[in-house]
């Protein structure tokens, strides 16, 4: 019998304790209205997340200047992790909760490992981005020396290697020793509560470091605002740069708020699952909250990509190149070349001086403010 359709008194009983968890049915607890609601979120957010992050990856990969900068390598890592999240989480979640597919321990843990890799790498990449911003603000004069492209790539290699190792520990043997009965997790089949406690603590630690980094960034931005306001005879352009720095600091606050709202509910249920046995109501609430993690992957490209001036300019240049290529191919097919088409001189890496002048970084903003203070 499906536990999600049982009587009300079964909400507080333990299917795993009385041996009624057959074919993982005690984990498939969503009611029909909940399936429709959560399924709609996944069917909508999954493809949108995939397209957004693929676009971010394509823009960074097509721009030589962005590929050389550590900040955009970290943003590309976030986008890659969110691409995996949009695929692995959406498919696995719908396959298990909506289509009620019961896999064996090896197949299930492999799928769960893929989801864990995606979300762990996403949070880890957000941490690297936060540390990058922290170094950029607090050590602006030596930023390019402290954080080189080689060091950025090395940090990404360490991040992804550690993430893959941690995520597939259950598949490698750290699983529940009693099958599906306690002390197994009531949220994830075959998962040992000790492993779930370690992974949850690890993610909470990463979030705490991100919180600390952004708090220090906001404090530094406030100091810049106060120091710039006290200067006399500062040019209007300098004031505009200062205001841009403050807007970036507010953006960091928005990033932090969204991060906490999306991750804290799911992590809270995981902590409860470690300490006590969840009811069906708790399992259903966790299934809903877990979709917030996917929504975080949906929002990341908007926060780290489209709000970034340099990446927007790179996107516009890419679209312009595509239009030029399409126009040139059309001219070649028809044999008619318009007066304004210079197909033979068209270059993918060409950047106008006006566009190059518009490109600016946080480190340059801070350096200009330090020069004003001196």
Automatic annotation (TrEMBL):
GO terms for cellular component: neuron projection; plasma membrane. The chain crosses the membrane at residues 37-60, 72-94, 106-131, 152-174, 194-219, 251-272, 284-306. Residues 52-304 form the G-protein coupled receptors family 1 profile domain. PANTHER family: G-PROTEIN COUPLED RECEPTOR (PTHR22750). Pfam families: 7tm_1 (PF00001). It is found in: Cell membrane; Cell projection, Neuron projection. Belongs to the G-protein coupled receptor 1 family. It is a multi-pass membrane protein. It comes from Oryzias sinensis. Keywords: Cell membrane, Cell projection, G-protein coupled receptor, Glycoprotein, Membrane, Receptor, Transducer, Transmembrane, Transmembrane helix. Its main location: membrane. It comes from the Eukaryota. GO terms for molecular function: cannabinoid receptor activity. This is Cannabinoid receptor 2. InterPro entries: Cnbnoid_rcpt, GPCR_Rhodpsn, GPCR_Rhodpsn_7TM.
């Amino acid at each position: 019998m499906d536990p999600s359709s049982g009587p009300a008194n079964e909400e507080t009983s333990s299917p795993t304790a009385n041996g009624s968890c057959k074919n993982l049915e005690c984990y498939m607890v969503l009611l029909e209205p909940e399936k429709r609601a959560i399924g709609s979120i996944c069917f909508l957010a999954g493809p949108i997340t995939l397209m957004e992050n693929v676009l971010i990856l394509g823009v960074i990969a097509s721009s030589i200047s962005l590929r050389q900068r550590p900040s955009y390598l970290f943003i590309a890592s976030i986008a890659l992790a969110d691409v995996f999240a949009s695929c692995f989480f959406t498919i696995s979640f719908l396959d298990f909760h909506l289509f009620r597919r019961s896999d064996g321990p090896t197949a299930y843990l492999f799928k769960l490992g893929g989801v864990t890799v995606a979300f762990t790498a996403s949070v880890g990449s957000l941490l690297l981005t936060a540390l990058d911003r922290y170094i950029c603000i607090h050590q602006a004069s030596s930023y390019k020396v402290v954080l080189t492209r080689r060091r950025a790539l090395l940090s990404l290699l360490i991040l992804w290697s550690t993430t893959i190792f941690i995520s597939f520990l259950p598949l490698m043997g750290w699983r529940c020793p009693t099958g599906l009965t306690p002390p197994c997790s009531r949220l994830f089949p075959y998962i040992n509560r000790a492993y779930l406690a370690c992974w949850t603590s690890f993610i909470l630690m990463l979030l705490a470091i991100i919180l600390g980094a952004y708090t220090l960034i906001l404090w530094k931005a406030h100091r810049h605002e106060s120091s710039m306001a006290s200067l006399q005879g500062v040019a209007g352009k300098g004031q505009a740069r200062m205001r841009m720095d403050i807007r970036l600091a507010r953006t960091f606050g928005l990033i932090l708020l969204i991060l906490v709202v999306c991750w804290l509910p799911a992590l809270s249920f995981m902590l409860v699952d470690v300490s006590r046995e969840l009811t069906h109501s708790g399992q259903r609430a966790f299934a809903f909250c877990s979709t917030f993690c996917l929504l975080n992957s949906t929002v990341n490209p908007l926060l780290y990509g489209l709000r970034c001036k340099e990446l927007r300019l790179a996107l516009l240049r890419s679209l312009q190149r595509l239009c030029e290529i399409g126009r040139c191919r059309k001219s070649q097919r028809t044999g008619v070349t318009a007066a304004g088409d210079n197909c033979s001189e068209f270059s993918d890496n060409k950047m106008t001086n006006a566009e190059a002048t518009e490109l600016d970084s946080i480190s340059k903003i801070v350096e200009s403010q330090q020069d004003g203070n001196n």
